[in-house]
Amino acid sequence: MARPLFGGAISAVIPHSAQDVSELRQIPDNQEVFAHSQTDQSIIIELLEYQSQVQDADAARYHFEDVAASNKAVENGSWEVRGVEQVLQSELSMQECSSAWLLSGAQLISKFNEEAKNTVNIHLCLFRLPLYTTDILVTFNDPVCINPLSSSAVENGAAIPWTLQDFKGVLQSFCLLDPGVFGSFYSYASTMTEEKNTKLTG
Protein backbone atom coordinates (compact mmCIF):
# COMPACT_ATOMS: atom_id res chain seq x y z
CA MET A 1 0.00 0.00 0.00
CA ALA A 2 1.32 3.43 -0.97
CA ARG A 3 2.45 5.66 1.88
CA PRO A 4 2.01 9.46 1.79
CA LEU A 5 5.27 11.43 1.87
CA PHE A 6 5.97 15.14 2.35
CA GLY A 7 2.47 15.82 3.67
CA GLY A 8 0.83 13.73 0.93
CA ALA A 9 2.50 15.53 -1.99
CA ILE A 10 4.32 12.32 -2.99
CA SER A 11 3.49 8.68 -2.36
CA ALA A 12 5.45 5.43 -2.56
CA VAL A 13 5.23 1.84 -1.37
CA ILE A 14 7.67 1.56 1.56
CA PRO A 15 8.95 -1.97 2.37
CA HIS A 16 7.94 -4.09 5.37
CA SER A 17 9.43 -3.44 8.84
CA ALA A 18 9.98 0.25 8.06
CA GLN A 19 10.13 2.75 10.91
CA ASP A 20 9.61 6.45 10.23
CA VAL A 21 12.77 8.03 11.68
CA SER A 22 10.99 11.40 12.12
CA GLU A 23 9.12 9.76 15.01
CA LEU A 24 12.48 9.26 16.76
CA ARG A 25 14.41 12.41 15.89
CA GLN A 26 14.13 15.61 13.88
CA ILE A 27 14.53 15.23 10.12
CA PRO A 28 15.11 18.13 7.66
CA ASP A 29 11.94 19.27 5.87
CA ASN A 30 13.32 18.16 2.51
CA GLN A 31 13.82 14.53 3.67
CA GLU A 32 11.82 11.43 4.49
CA VAL A 33 13.87 8.74 6.27
CA PHE A 34 12.85 5.15 6.97
CA ALA A 35 14.93 2.63 8.91
CA HIS A 36 14.47 -1.13 8.96
CA SER A 37 13.27 -1.92 12.49
CA GLN A 38 15.55 -4.97 12.83
CA THR A 39 18.60 -4.21 10.68
CA ASP A 40 20.79 -1.16 9.99
CA GLN A 41 19.29 -0.66 6.53
CA SER A 42 17.67 2.64 5.66
CA ILE A 43 15.92 4.41 2.80
CA ILE A 44 16.26 8.19 2.46
CA ILE A 45 14.16 10.33 0.12
CA GLU A 46 15.41 13.87 -0.52
CA LEU A 47 14.12 16.84 -2.50
CA LEU A 48 17.18 18.67 -3.82
CA GLU A 49 17.83 21.66 -6.04
CA TYR A 50 18.16 20.69 -9.70
CA GLN A 51 21.82 20.72 -10.72
CA SER A 52 21.50 22.16 -14.22
CA GLN A 53 25.28 22.24 -14.73
CA VAL A 54 25.49 18.44 -14.47
CA GLN A 55 24.56 16.24 -17.45
CA ASP A 56 21.85 13.65 -16.78
CA ALA A 57 24.23 10.70 -17.19
CA ASP A 58 26.64 12.21 -14.62
CA ALA A 59 24.09 13.53 -12.12
CA ALA A 60 23.66 10.31 -10.11
CA ARG A 61 27.43 10.13 -9.59
CA TYR A 62 27.48 13.81 -8.63
CA HIS A 63 24.95 13.17 -5.85
CA PHE A 64 26.70 9.93 -4.82
CA GLU A 65 29.92 11.87 -4.26
CA ASP A 66 27.95 14.45 -2.27
CA VAL A 67 26.58 11.61 -0.09
CA ALA A 68 30.14 10.29 0.33
CA ALA A 69 31.22 13.72 1.59
CA SER A 70 28.31 13.77 4.07
CA ASN A 71 29.30 10.29 5.26
CA LYS A 72 32.96 11.38 5.55
CA ALA A 73 33.86 8.68 3.04
CA VAL A 74 35.86 10.88 0.69
CA GLU A 75 39.30 9.34 1.27
CA ASN A 76 40.85 7.22 -1.48
CA GLY A 77 39.46 3.71 -1.32
CA SER A 78 36.54 4.74 0.91
CA TRP A 79 33.97 4.65 -1.88
CA GLU A 80 33.40 3.20 -5.32
CA VAL A 81 30.82 3.42 -8.08
CA ARG A 82 30.03 0.01 -9.52
CA GLY A 83 27.57 1.02 -12.20
CA VAL A 84 25.06 3.60 -13.43
CA GLU A 85 22.09 2.80 -15.65
CA GLN A 86 19.11 4.72 -16.92
CA VAL A 87 15.73 3.54 -15.67
CA LEU A 88 13.16 3.09 -18.41
CA GLN A 89 10.25 5.51 -18.20
CA SER A 90 7.88 2.58 -18.78
CA GLU A 91 9.01 1.07 -15.44
CA LEU A 92 8.08 4.18 -13.45
CA SER A 93 4.86 5.66 -12.10
CA MET A 94 6.48 9.12 -11.97
CA GLN A 95 6.06 10.41 -15.50
CA GLU A 96 6.97 14.00 -14.58
CA CYS A 97 10.70 13.24 -14.50
CA SER A 98 12.73 13.89 -17.64
CA SER A 99 14.96 10.91 -16.78
CA ALA A 100 15.80 8.59 -13.90
CA TRP A 101 19.14 6.99 -13.10
CA LEU A 102 20.07 4.08 -10.85
CA LEU A 103 23.57 3.95 -9.36
CA SER A 104 25.11 1.09 -7.41
CA GLY A 105 28.17 1.65 -5.28
CA ALA A 106 29.70 1.23 -1.84
CA GLN A 107 31.12 3.42 0.89
CA LEU A 108 33.11 2.85 4.08
CA ILE A 109 31.01 4.56 6.74
CA SER A 110 31.30 4.86 10.52
CA LYS A 111 28.17 5.03 12.67
CA PHE A 112 27.79 7.87 15.19
CA ASN A 113 31.35 9.08 14.36
CA GLU A 114 32.86 5.84 15.65
CA GLU A 115 36.38 4.82 14.62
CA ALA A 116 35.11 1.46 13.31
CA LYS A 117 33.91 1.64 9.69
CA ASN A 118 31.36 -0.56 7.97
CA THR A 119 31.09 -1.36 4.27
CA VAL A 120 27.70 -0.14 3.07
CA ASN A 121 26.29 -0.96 -0.34
CA ILE A 122 24.50 2.13 -1.61
CA HIS A 123 21.80 1.96 -4.27
CA LEU A 124 20.78 5.41 -5.35
CA CYS A 125 18.06 6.52 -7.76
CA LEU A 126 17.90 10.04 -9.10
CA PHE A 127 14.69 11.42 -10.59
CA ARG A 128 15.43 14.55 -12.63
CA LEU A 129 12.62 17.12 -12.77
CA PRO A 130 13.96 20.23 -14.58
CA LEU A 131 10.39 21.52 -15.00
CA TYR A 132 10.24 21.91 -11.21
CA THR A 133 14.00 22.70 -10.85
CA THR A 134 14.25 19.64 -8.60
CA ASP A 135 16.31 16.49 -8.29
CA ILE A 136 14.66 13.78 -6.18
CA LEU A 137 17.22 11.45 -4.63
CA VAL A 138 16.18 8.08 -3.20
CA THR A 139 18.98 6.21 -1.41
CA PHE A 140 19.03 2.64 -0.06
CA ASN A 141 21.79 2.09 2.49
CA ASP A 142 22.53 -1.62 2.87
CA PRO A 143 25.39 -2.52 5.29
CA VAL A 144 27.12 -5.71 4.12
CA CYS A 145 30.33 -5.87 6.14
CA ILE A 146 30.07 -4.81 9.77
CA ASN A 147 33.20 -4.04 11.78
CA PRO A 148 33.05 -6.11 15.03
CA LEU A 149 33.85 -2.93 17.01
CA SER A 150 30.89 -1.04 15.51
CA SER A 151 27.66 -0.48 17.45
CA SER A 152 25.98 -2.08 14.41
CA ALA A 153 27.63 -5.43 15.20
CA VAL A 154 24.62 -6.78 17.13
CA GLU A 155 22.96 -9.32 14.84
CA ASN A 156 19.31 -10.26 14.69
CA GLY A 157 19.10 -13.71 13.14
CA ALA A 158 15.33 -13.49 12.78
CA ALA A 159 15.41 -10.24 10.79
CA ILE A 160 14.23 -10.31 7.19
CA PRO A 161 16.35 -7.65 5.44
CA TRP A 162 15.23 -5.46 2.57
CA THR A 163 16.40 -6.53 -0.87
CA LEU A 164 17.29 -4.61 -4.00
CA GLN A 165 13.93 -5.75 -5.35
CA ASP A 166 12.20 -4.08 -2.38
CA PHE A 167 14.05 -0.87 -3.21
CA LYS A 168 13.07 -1.08 -6.87
CA GLY A 169 9.47 -1.49 -5.70
CA VAL A 170 9.79 1.90 -3.95
CA LEU A 171 11.10 3.50 -7.13
CA GLN A 172 8.47 1.97 -9.41
CA SER A 173 5.64 3.09 -7.11
CA PHE A 174 6.98 6.63 -6.63
CA CYS A 175 4.21 9.06 -7.54
CA LEU A 176 3.98 12.88 -7.59
CA LEU A 177 0.56 14.07 -6.36
CA ASP A 178 1.16 17.78 -5.64
CA PRO A 179 3.97 19.69 -7.43
CA GLY A 180 3.38 22.54 -4.97
CA VAL A 181 5.66 20.69 -2.56
CA PHE A 182 8.68 21.89 -4.51
CA GLY A 183 7.76 25.55 -3.93
CA SER A 184 7.36 24.86 -0.20
CA PHE A 185 10.75 23.17 -0.11
CA TYR A 186 12.51 26.07 -1.83
CA SER A 187 10.95 28.58 0.57
CA TYR A 188 12.45 26.49 3.38
CA ALA A 189 15.81 26.17 1.61
CA SER A 190 15.93 29.91 0.91
CA THR A 191 15.22 30.70 4.57
CA MET A 192 17.99 28.35 5.70
CA THR A 193 20.44 29.98 3.26
CA GLU A 194 19.51 33.47 4.47
CA GLU A 195 20.00 32.41 8.11
CA LYS A 196 23.37 30.89 7.24
CA ASN A 197 24.47 34.05 5.42
CA THR A 198 23.31 36.22 8.34
CA LYS A 199 25.44 34.16 10.73
CA LEU A 200 28.45 34.49 8.44
CA THR A 201 28.13 38.24 8.00
CA GLY A 202 26.53 39.17 11.33
Short recap of the structure:
By secondary structure, the protein is of the alpha+beta class.
Give a quick set of tags describing it.
202 residues, alpha+beta, seven-stranded antiparallel β-sheet, three-stranded antiparallel β-sheet, 36% strand, globular, disordered C terminus
Q: Ranges with pLDDT <50 over ≥5 residues?
A: 150-154, 187-202
Distance between the termini: 49 Å
Largest sheet: 7 strands, antiparallel
User: Approximately how much helix is present in the residues?
Assistant: 10-25%
Helical segment tally?
A: 3
Count the E strands: 10
User: What's the overall average pLDDT, rounded?
Assistant: 82
> In order across it, which strands form the biggest sheet?
3-4-5-9-8-7-6
Give me the strand/helix succession: EEEEEHEEEEHEH
Portion of residues in beta strands equals 35-45%
Main structural class: alpha+beta
The best one-word shape is globular
Report Rg: 17 Å
Commentary on this structure:
The longest helix has 22 residues, at 180-201. This protein has helices spanning 56-70, 164-173, 180-201; strands at 2-5, 10-13, 18-20, 31-36, 42-49, 79-86, 99-110, 117-129, 134-145, 175-176. The protein starts with a strand and ends with a helix. It is of the alpha+beta class and 202 residues long. Mean pLDDT is 82; it is low at 150-154 and 187-202. The chain is built from three helices and ten strands. 23% of the residues lie in helices and 36% in strands. The strands form two sheets. The protein has a seven-stranded antiparallel sheet. It has a three-stranded antiparallel sheet with strand order 1-2-10.
